[in-house]
Design goal:
Layout: E1 8-11, H1 17-26, E2 28-30, H2 40-47, E3 52-55, H3 63-67, E4 74-77, H4 87-92, E5 96-98, H5 105-120, H6 123-131, E6 152-156, H7 160-168, E7 175-179, H8 186-192, E8 194-196, H9 199-205, E9 208-211, H10 225-230, E10 236-239, H11 248-257, E11 262-265, H12 276-279, E12 284-286, H13 295-313
Parallel strand pairs: 1-2, 1-3, 3-4, 4-5, 6-7, 6-9, 7-8, 9-10, 10-11, 11-12
Helix pairs in contact: 1-13, 5-7
Bound molecules: glyoxylic acid (GLV).
Glyoxylic acid is lined by residues 57, 79-81, 104, 291-292.
């Protein structure tokens, strides 16, 4: 195909060489391998003559951006969550939107577990003490944590990632309860060894409350002061899904007051500018939104996004189309 006839795409952030190689076989590519995030106006200018956009959760794709890109036919997000994309606005303009489900489930579930274990056993707190030279020797009552094994794991949001988190609990002989908009199929409940409970029952019973639902207006501040009050004082909260599902100011207060024991967080409101209150607390483990960040998984996500984009721009049906109405 003549290069002039190839669809024109913009890739908003750095991707792997193999991702670019694949895209370049099918498209004329404007890449941002320097990885300096586009400000909204710069993104609008860069996408103005493009047929396709490959973007990340740091890019806001809204009606204003779409209006600046009259040729745009497809937006491929390199993420499973797509709260950065106004999908109805895409649909209204006939723009296909895609995400990257499936390929990151296990890595994201592993990270949720890393946060559970890290928070329960105070790993980052004690590492700071060791590095500061504060470890003077073994003591019986030193930096006591809580057990993960045989505890009750409560998962809110029982999609593929929630289920992967639940399946991992069997080796720890945990009791698993979950809450979801809809109860999952009985055979999935059996595979996860998980029992459906109400939202309030989950908050009251779980030793570990793990959040894995998507972020949208309905889940904004799903966990705030009132919900933290309903949790056990010994409970640990894990947010490995999206900032905004937790009211971070209320969580800082609850961690400070001992309303709950601890929290393990991979995501924050207004990240990367997290609430400074977290930085002063020892009972919180902080990670910089790395849920899916293993080399294999990030490569798979980028390639899946590229395949979605190429399919959309070459007359195929993207495997992960979010708005089939287009
Ligand atoms: C990461 O946060 C994702 O949604 O894939």
């Amino acid at each position: 195909m003549n290069a002039a006839h190839k669809p024109r795409v913009l890739v908003t952030r750095e991707v792997f060489d193999e991702t670019l190689d694949y895209l370049r076989r099918h498209c004329e590519v404007l890449a941002n391998q320097d990885d300096v995030p586009y400000a909204p106006e710069a993104l609008a200018a860069a996408v103005a003559d493009r047929d396709g956009l490959m973007c990340c959760l740091t890019d806001r794709v809204d009606a204003a951006l779409l209006a600046a890109a009259p040729n745009l036919k497809a937006v491929a997000n390199i993420a499973v969550g797509y709260n950065n994309i106004d999908v109805p606005a895409c649909t209204a303009r006939g723009v296909m939107a895609t995400n990257t489900p499936g390929v990151l489930d296990d890595s994201t579930a592993d990270l949720a577990w890393a946060l559970m274990l890290g928070t329960a056993r105070r790993i980052t707190e004690v590492e700071r003490r060791v590095r500061a030279g504060e470890w003077t020797g073994w003591q019986l009552k030193q930096w006591l944590g809580v057990d993960v094994h045989h505890a009750t794991l409560g998962i809110i949001g029982m999609g593929r990632i929630g289920q992967a988190i639940a399946r991992r609990a069997s080796g720890f002989e945990m009791k698993v309860i979950y809450h979801n908009r809809n109860r999952i199929a009985p055979e999935l409940e059996r595979r996860c060894n998980a029992a459906y409970v109400s939202f309030d029952e989950l908050l009251a019973q779980a030793d570990f409350v793990v959040l894995q639902m998507p972020y949208n207006p309905q889940t904004h501040h799903l966990i705030g002061a009132a919900q933290l009050e309903k949790m056990k004082r010994s409970a640990i909260l894990i947010n490995s899904t999206r900032g905004g599902v937790v009211d971070d100011a209320a969580l800082v207060q609850a961690l400070r007051d001992g309303t709950i024991r601890g929290a393990g967080l991979d995501v924050f409101e207004n990240e990367p500018k997290l609430n400074p209150g977290f930085l002063k607390l020892d009972n919180v483990v902080l990670a910089p939104h790395i849920g899916s960040s293993t080399e294999a998984t990030r490569k798979a996500m980028a390639m899946l996004a590229a395949q979605n984009l190429v399919a959309a721009l070459t007359g195929g049906k993207p495997p992960n189309l979010l708005n089939p109405g287009v």
